[in-house]
What we know:
Elements: H1 17-28, E1 71-74, H2 78-87, E2 94-98, E3 101-107, E4 113-119
Parallel strand pairs: 1-4
Antiparallel strand pairs: 2-3, 3-4
Amino acid sequence: MASVTGLGGIFYKVEDPDRTRAWYQEKLGVGGEWGAMFPWKADEGGEAYSLFSPFKAASDYFDPSEARFMVNLRVDDLAAMIEELKGKDVEILGTQYEDYGKFAWILDCDGIKIELWEQVGPVPA
């Protein structure tokens, strides 16, 4: 039987795709012909993976965004990313530190919540 091998992308509707692509390029430094494009590689000593995870409809984890989804982006240095974003007038909604990673949250220009994640240890199984 054929099987799913991974996440190929996240596609969503916005009013002005050019503005959104420009925001991601300017604020987060990511872009490409079809949007943000990330090469895939395994972490040192671990597997590479993407998470496709449903949340309860009543969850407030995506707040203050009104969207029914949130995007998690991996970063290599969360502290530096936070400072760069502050310098670009991007509001940091909060931060959290766990054994397996450091997190920060922002909203993009369309009000989509973005979770920034720096992995610092093994991800819980």
